[in-house]
Design brief:
With about 400 residues, this protein is of the alpha+beta class. It contains 13 helices and 18 strands. The protein folds into three domains: about 90 residues, Rossmann fold (3-Layer(aba) Sandwich), CATH 3.40.50.20; about 60 residues, ATP-grasp fold, A domain (Dna Ligase, domain 1), CATH 3.30.1490; about 200 residues, ATP-grasp fold, B domain (D-amino Acid Aminotransferase, Chain A, domain 1, 2-Layer Sandwich). Helix content is about 30%, strand content about 25%. Helix 1 crosses helix 11. It is globular, with a radius of gyration of 21 Å.
Amino acid sequence: MSFKTNINNRKKNYSIGIIGGGQLALMLTEAAKNRGLEVCVQTKSSSDPAGLKAAYVIEADPLDVNGNKSLINECEKIIFENEWIKIDKLNLIDTKNIFIPSLDAIKPLVDRISQKKLIDSINIPCPKWISIKDFKILPEEEIKNWSFPLMAKSNKGGYDGKGNKKINTKEELDYFLNENDVDEWLIEEWIDFENELALVGSRDHNGEIRVFPMVETFQSNHVCDWVLSPASTDYDLNLFALNIFSSIVNQLNYVGVLGIEFFYGVNGLLINEIAPRTHNSAHFSIEACSSSQFDQYVCISSGIKPPEIKMNCEGAIMINLLGLKNNFPTSIETRIKMLSAIDGSNLHLYGKSQETPGRKMAHITFLLKGKTYLERYDESKEILTKVRDIWPSPNA
């Protein structure tokens, strides 16, 4: 296969190329179509979620460099579904600023240890942490400063509860240290938080920042179960979160969409993780906001001025629908039909051919009418009960 060397000097076939073809890429593709833009995706199979809607599919693993070159040859700008990319390989390609965000901006965010180092370097509060490699050589008196329980996290690839392990005793810790590669994990202090919050926003080429309302996320077995927007937060907390977001994206000269997960409690607001991409916690924005997180990313990537972000309702609930066991008594087709019949439902199916336990199959959003947080929370719990009666959480 040969490639032209002047790929950035000619009009290309597609405005946007996406590395990855899962549900985030699917919703990016849908947002692009709403803007009259055609998208090319690089994914393993044209039957992957985004492949079903994209104008063109390059069937290659998203980490395959030859596939990356083909995508670059076809597309004006390249965006990312997730941060699991080979930056060193992509840097070898003469891209002339084709990636959004830039590789330099995304590099500190592709693994948890480099994220932690970035957070520490700009003095943003987060849980105390240490790489397992460094932990194993601590003097005994310093090890005593780490009290149980502890949270072990994989350095790369952790999501939806994967790559997290609670360690309750020294015996569990010793076993864990012996069984795992020291370069692949870090240890965090255990945080007793009151709420888990998230903030998603965008930064465009002019440095202008736009953010969605802060949301509260509700977990089940370390996996997001549902999201309530907006969260019950005051002006000062919202301003602090905005300052954290701004500090990160400005420090990195980051262009695109970025999400931050927070713990909130007696220790104040602490960063849990940073996601350099669109994020599950802002899926509600498709129906509830003047511009969704996917629309923001598409606009920024294609040179369209992103709209200002405003809620077009009092609030919203988004519920994740994860795969159930094969012997679940109600078929997925029946569940979809029943959920669609609920008044006010906005069901987003991801087009995945096989339902397996815990796999993200869809999400459903409802707009809320309550004027206060408590009214919206009660309204959400009633809706959640209806949805879970039809489609329960496999993690409950």
